[in-house]
């Protein structure tokens, strides 16, 4: 019995059911806040977010998951196009219309940066799945959605200037946005559209960017949005952290050597950090996996998944299941998507480990949910991912389950619809 | 394409070494 108990402790997370209910008050972490070039990361709709006020209605978790699927469809479409895959069936994609005041794949996290002279604080969603940084700009020639902070007014900044159409950087917009730049009165105009049909169109510009008081970048290239519609939920715009030459990472590469890191908070009432440059912790205890060759030439960050372990047992999944599909890591997608065979195996093993608890109905794209309302404590199997380079990553318990309510606690994974996606 | 989403990244320190062509994971950086 002692050995069994020891094995149970090693391979299971045991926690109070009451701890699954998110707090309504902010408990900020001090970690990262005093680091060089470190910004505080908050859940856009949690109590730590300045956007979490009555001005903008927060989406329900069902809406968040529906929007998550449109982001996934968009990533599949963009990668299929870039990789020249034939198997992508565009007609299967779900298009969810953009709604003003709602969100773009709204499991997104936000950080606050400074723009212009004098500096204006702007809260932007950060996104490793796109490249161009943009914010809404006055005079909002066509349209702007409602945002929490005052809209950036370039006429009140002494360091703002437009990029001309003849500039070589104007042509770089094609790869950063997927759309060719246009020209308006010899000023370079960008257009970017996201998977949910949200979009931003405006002047391609340069301006002083302030990350922290010691991290200031003159002539930062960004989009000054004059026509913005969609699911941005009160944020002033988007911070593009992809790999394209126009992304923030490449533009600040001289100072930070194209290294950045983040910690996402475990609940909506906690804070994390987004840090630029190498830090002490980003070298020592970190296990690195090489970027996948699959995403070479794209702005995505590709990973090679080799296997999954549930409750201490490695799942029997052929490595070809993962290698045929490929994978990317994305800060804006909420729920991990797996090839169908891998998801089936994960779900089956999770169900075995959770057999003591009553199953209940599914929740949106999550099909494995439990009613834990009659329990004080619960044991959830540990899950770890193996990546190439002999890297094993143990997920936090907050990365295994999603809790719409205590009577519906769900395995936080979903399967793709096809083996090669 | 599989996608490693942000729920699964919670409380992991995720390091993007773009110049080095690698992504790192650590669990100690967020505690």
Short structural description:
The complex is a heterodimer of chains A (421) and B (31). Chain A is of the alpha+beta class and 421 residues long.
Fold and architecture overview:
The complex is a heterodimer of chains A (421) and B (31). Chain A is of the alpha+beta class. Chain A is built from 8 helices and 27 strands. In chain A, a hairpin with a 5-residue loop joins β8 and β9. The two termini of chain A are 44 Å apart. The model of chain A is unreliable at 85-106 (pLDDT under 50). Chain B has strands spanning 2-4, 13-17, 22-26. In chain B, β2 and β3 (22-26) form a beta hairpin. Chain B is mainly β and 31 residues long. Chain B contains no helices and 3 strands. Chain B has a two-stranded antiparallel ribbon with strand order 2-3. The interface between A and B is large, with 73 and 31 residues. β18 of chain A pairs parallel with β1 (2-4) of chain B.
Order of strands across the main sheet of chain B: 2-3
The proportion of residues in beta strands of chain B is 35-45%
Number of helices of chain A: 8
Total number of strands of chain B: 3
Oligomer: heterodimer
Give the helix proportion of chain A (percent range): 10-25%
What does the radius of gyration of chain B come to?
A: 10 Å
Strand order of the largest sheet of chain A: 3-4-11-5-10-9
Query: What distance lies between the first and last C-alpha atoms of chain A, to the nearest angstrom?
Result: 44 Å
Q: Report helical residue fraction of chain B.
A: under 10%
Largest sheet of chain A: 6 strands, mixed, barrel
Runs of chain A in which pLDDT lies below 50 for 5 or more consecutive residues are 85-106
């Amino acid at each position: 019995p002692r050995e069994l108990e020891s094995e149970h402790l090693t391979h299971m997370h045991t926690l109070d059911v009451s701890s699954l209910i998110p707090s309504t008050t902010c408990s900020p972490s001090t970690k990262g806040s005093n680091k060089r070039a470190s910004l505080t990361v908050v859940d856009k709709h949690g109590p730590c977010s300045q956007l979490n006020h009555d001005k903008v209605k927060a989406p329900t978790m069902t809406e968040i998951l529906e929007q998550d699927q449109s982001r996934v469809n968009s990533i599949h479409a963009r990668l299929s196009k870039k990789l020249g895959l034939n198997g992508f069936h565009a007609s299967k994609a779900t298009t969810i219309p953009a709604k003003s005041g709602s969100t773009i794949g709204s499991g997104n996290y936000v950080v606050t940066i400074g723009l212009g002279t004098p500096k204006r604080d702007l809260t932007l969603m950060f996104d490793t799945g796109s490249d161009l940084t943009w914010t809404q700009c006055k005079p909002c020639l066509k349209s702007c959605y409602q945002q929490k902070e005052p809209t950036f007014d370039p006429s009140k900044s002494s360091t703002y200037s437009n990029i001309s159409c003849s500039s070589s950087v104007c042509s770089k917009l094609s790869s950063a946005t997927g759309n060719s730049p246009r020209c308006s009165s010899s000023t370079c105009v960008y257009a970017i559209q996201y998977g949910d049909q949200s979009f931003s169109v405006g002047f391609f510009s340069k301006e002083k960017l302030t990350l922290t008081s010691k991290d200031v970048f003159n002539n930062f290239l960004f989009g000054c949005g004059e026509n913005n519609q969609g699911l941005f939920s009160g944020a002033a715009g988007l911070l593009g952290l992809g790999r394209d030459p126009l992304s923030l990472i490449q533009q600040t590469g001289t100072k930070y050597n194209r290294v950045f890191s983040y910690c996402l908070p475990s609940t909506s009432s906690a804070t994390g950090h987004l840090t630029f440059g190498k830090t002490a912790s980003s070298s020592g205890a970190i296990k690195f996996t090489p970027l996948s060759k699959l995403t070479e030439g794209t702005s995505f960050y590709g990973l090679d998944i080799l296997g999954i372990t549930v409750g201490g047992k490695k799942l029997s999944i052929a490595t070809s299941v993962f290698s045929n599909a490929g994978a990317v890591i994305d800060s804006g997608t909420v729920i991990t998507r797996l090839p169908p065979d891998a998801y089936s195996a994960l779900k089956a093993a999770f169900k075995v480990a959770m057999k003591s608890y009553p199953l209940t109905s599914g929740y949106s794209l999550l099909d494995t949910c439990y009613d834990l309302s009659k329990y004080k404590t619960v044991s959830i199997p540990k899950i770890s991912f193996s990546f190439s380079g002999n890297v094993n990553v143990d997920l936090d318990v907050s990365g295994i389950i999603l809790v719409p309510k205590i009577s519906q606690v769900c395995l936080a994974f979903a399967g793709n619809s096809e083996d090669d996606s | 394409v599989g996608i490693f989403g942000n729920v699964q990244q919670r409380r992991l320190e995720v390091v993007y070494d773009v110049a080095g062509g690698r992504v790192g994971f650590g669990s100690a950086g967020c505690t």
